[in-house]
């Protein structure tokens, strides 16, 4: 093995420090207001996880309950298990050193904590191989009030040549419950975020993606773990985590039973999917893994969700406190067939609904190959002169004159073969050599790894904003996955393709956000294909599914709510479904309300009800967007659903209730509210009704005590399928 002189000197210093005998255990406690994960440095200089659970009174209370056993098994519950050495199960990291050695040992070197703000503390634990200048830092950022811990890993080395990273997890979490019930989220196009609970058996179970882009289509990189299947919204231990990454991911759950070295334990290993992604790390390079965000609660799944929501609004999404805009989208009204007058006339329809913004969807671009259908024009981001002779700037001016903001749809990572871009830049296409061209939705993926392509994609947004500075909103779509993956820019070095594509996409988004920090952006990828916090740090909201059938949306929005707050979940009223307009609006109002309908098809009563509902949403938007969520009746367990949002002062609340497709007269749900102040009295009023229409809730307008609403509840009063009700609570 050849090591540079500087690296030798640094290695000598590290070895001198690490040769000092650790005479007594050092404890490293990562804590929030209510949660702790605690590590201990054992006599072998290994960092061991000794605790995960409720925060105890002080650091000295945490102790290793297996000290004798651990002395015989140095890898019992290690903080970051290494491959090729003495750990014989799934490792967090596996490398090939510059000299070909496949083994890795990581010893403790040092750690430090620093206060980043009154609410955030970051702890970094430095590790190093005792025989190589190979370094790993484990980072833990603890958000005190939110009870969230954000962890990631930085990898570097000082070896003479490249070190190949074969695995590189973001974290390695040890769970010591006797059994583990996993809740995860799977699906497909129009069936995203289906929720499933399973008892983990001995062996390895994983949720993962190899889609390259649209990474969360089949599995969302989020999960919950509980020691019992009977955990509820309000009771039971829960560990929940989500990986913030927009590329291929793999979250492994290795359940060990009767293991002679490690006993009974669950190892959670989240990170980038190592599939086709060995990464050659240069001596001067630092590799940073995606962030893994987790929380723990012994008060059920509801508290876990509220932890994530509070964290997401202030730290996990772009401009979380920026007011969300209600909108009308033209897609179902026009599809590709529109002209300038058609769009301008739709602005009046938006005003009839009372929404904030008009969103122009697909079909506005392309001249040599007009975007009159999905088979042409993609990649040619010039306004279609025949459809829109005044350009996008004219539409923005017209919308502004009518009191509306204006938004526009783009899909800048993609190209149709029938486009000028395809003809001019065949070297920009991700097409595997010697393989037939495989189109999906008649389109191909651009090679974002190429810096020229990154400039092109950035310019799609930048040129639009220059042409029409009044654009307030962009819907960013992504309608295919990555297959036959090959980057012409990388040439023979294809191993890091999946990783470098994601890095390139983030680079583009960084540039956009640096220049346009106040621009609203919706994340869309054939629906919910990119619903994860890696992308959401650049976007305000996302489109969770192209499935807008209201009953399906109730289940989808319920599952999505475990990790993502309501203000991020775009919920549009459309023509899909046989349910009434009221039902559709009541479902959509529980997320971020929008419309994609032909307004002219509404009768006067429907239009009046729509405007009333939009007004109610605007009036109660702060409660729905920023209030605490309490899920009351599960659509996964019953034929009904109910949830509520409560403001921070517990003075206002909004309750949503739905009957779904099937009814059984003898199983009306128990309906107890949550999150209220038991000492306050609340007036309960049904809203989203036509003027002078009788309420469904027979006691609408009456006053109830908070304790009565929470401990006695209300009688479920809806007796017909596909009916809905929205209640407003106001403390007196």
Give a description of the structure.
- The chain is α+β, with helices and mostly antiparallel strands and 732 residues long.
- It folds into three domains: 312 residues, alpha-galactosidase from lactobacil brevis (Beta-galactosidase, Chain A, domain 5), CATH 2.70.98.60; 298 residues, Aldolase class I (TIM Barrel); 103 residues, Golgi alpha-mannosidase II (Immunoglobulin-like, Sandwich).
- It is built from 14 helices and 36 strands.
- The strands form seven sheets. Strands 5, 6, 7, 8, 11, 12, 14, 15, 19 and 20 form a ten-stranded antiparallel sheet that branches. An eight-stranded parallel sheet has the order 28-27-26-23-22-21-30-29.
- Strand 2 and strand 3 form a beta hairpin.
- Helix 8 packs parallel to helix 9, helix 11 runs parallel beside helix 12 and helix 12 packs parallel to helix 13.
- It is globular, with a radius of gyration of 27 Å.
């Amino acid at each position: 093995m050849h090591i540079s002189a500087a690296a030798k000197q640094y290695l000598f210093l590290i070895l001198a420090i690490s040769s000092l005998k650790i005479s007594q255990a050092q404890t490293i406690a990562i804590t929030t207001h209510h949660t702790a994960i605690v590590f201990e440095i054992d006599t072998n200089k290994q960092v061991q996880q000794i605790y995960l659970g409720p925060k105890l009174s002080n650091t000295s209370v945490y102790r290793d309950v297996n000290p004798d056993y651990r002395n015989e098994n140095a890898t019992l519950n290690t903080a970051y298990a290494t491959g090729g050495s003495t750990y014989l199960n799934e490792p967090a990291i596996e490398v090939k050193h510059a000299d070909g050695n496949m083994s890795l040992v990581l010893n403790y070197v040092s750690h430090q904590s620093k206060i980043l703000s009154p609410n955030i503390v970051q702890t970094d634990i430095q590790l190093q191989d005792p025989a190589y200048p190979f370094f790993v830092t484990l980072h833990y950022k603890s958000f005190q009030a939110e009870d969230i811990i954000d962890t990631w890993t930085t990898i570097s080395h000082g070896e003479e040549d490249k070190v190949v990273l074969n695995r590189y997890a973001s974290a390695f979490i040890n769970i010591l419950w006797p059994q583990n019930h996993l809740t995860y989220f799977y699906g497909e196009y129009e069936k995203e975020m289906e929720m499933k609970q399973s008892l983990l058996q001995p062996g390895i179970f994983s949720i993962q993606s190899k889609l390259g882009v649209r990474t969360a289509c089949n599995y969302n990189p989020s999960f919950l773990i509980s020691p019992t299947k009977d955990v509820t919204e309000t009771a039971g231990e829960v560990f929940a985590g989500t990986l913030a990454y927009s590329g291929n991911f793999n979250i492994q759950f290795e359940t060990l039973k009767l293991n002679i070295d490690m006993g009974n334990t669950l190892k959670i290993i989240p990170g980038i999917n190592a599939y086709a992604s060995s990464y050659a790390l240069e001596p001067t390079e630092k590799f940073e893994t995606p962030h893994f965000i987790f929380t723990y609660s012994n008060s059920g799944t509801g508290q876990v969700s509220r932890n994530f929501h509070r964290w997401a609004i202030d730290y996990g999404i772009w401009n979380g406190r920026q007011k969300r805009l209600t909108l009308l989208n033209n897609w179902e009204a026009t599809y590709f067939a529109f002209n300038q007058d058609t769009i301008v006339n739709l602005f009046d329809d938006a005003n009839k609904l009372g929404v904030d913004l008009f969103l122009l969807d697909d079909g506005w671009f392309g001249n040599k190959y007009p975007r009159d259908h999905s088979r042409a024009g993609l990649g040619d981001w010039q306004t279609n002169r025949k459809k829109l002779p005044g350009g996008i700037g004219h539409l923005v001016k017209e919308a502004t004159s009518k009191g509306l903001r204006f938004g526009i749809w783009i899909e800048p990572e993609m190209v149709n073969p029938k486009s000028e871009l395809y003809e001019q830049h065949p070297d920009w296409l991700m097409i595997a050599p010697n393989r037939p061209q495989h189109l999906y939705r008649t389109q191909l993926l651009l090679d974002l790894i190429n810096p020229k392509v990154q400039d092109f994609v950035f310019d799609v947004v930048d040129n639009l904003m220059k042409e029409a500075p009044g654009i307030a909103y962009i819907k960013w779509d992504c309608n295919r996955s990555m297959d036959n993956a090959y980057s012409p820019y990388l040439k023979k070095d294809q191993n890091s393709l999946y990783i470098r594509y994601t890095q390139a996409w983030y680079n583009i988004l960084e540039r956009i956000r640096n220049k346009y920090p106040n621009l609203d952006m919706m994340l869309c990828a054939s629906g919910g294909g990119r619903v994860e916090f890696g992308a959401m740090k650049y976007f305000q909201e996302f489109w969770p599914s192209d499935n807008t059938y209201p009953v399906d949306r109730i289940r989808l929005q319920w599952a999505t709510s475990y990790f993502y707050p309501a203000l991020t979940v775009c919920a549009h009223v459309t023509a899909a479904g046989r349910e009434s307009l009221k039902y559709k609006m009541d479902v959509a109002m529980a997320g971020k309300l929008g419309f994609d309908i032909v307004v002219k098809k509404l009768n006067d009563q429907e239009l009046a009800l729509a405007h009333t509902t939009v007004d109610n949403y605007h009036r109660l938007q702060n409660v729905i967007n920023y209030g605490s969520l309490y899920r009351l009746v599960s659509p996964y367990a019953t034929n009904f659903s109910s949830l509520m949002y409560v403001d921070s002062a517990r003075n206002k609340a909004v309750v949503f209730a739905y009957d779904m497709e099937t009814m059984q007269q003898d199983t009306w749900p128990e309906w107890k509210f949550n999150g209220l102040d038991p000492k306050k009295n609340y007036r309960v009023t049904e809203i989203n009704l036509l003027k002078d229409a009788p309420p469904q809730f027979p006691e609408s307008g009456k006053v109830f005590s908070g304790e009565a609403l929470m401990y006695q509840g209300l009688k479920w009063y809806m007796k017909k399928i596909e009916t809905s009700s929205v209640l407003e609570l106001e403390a007196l």
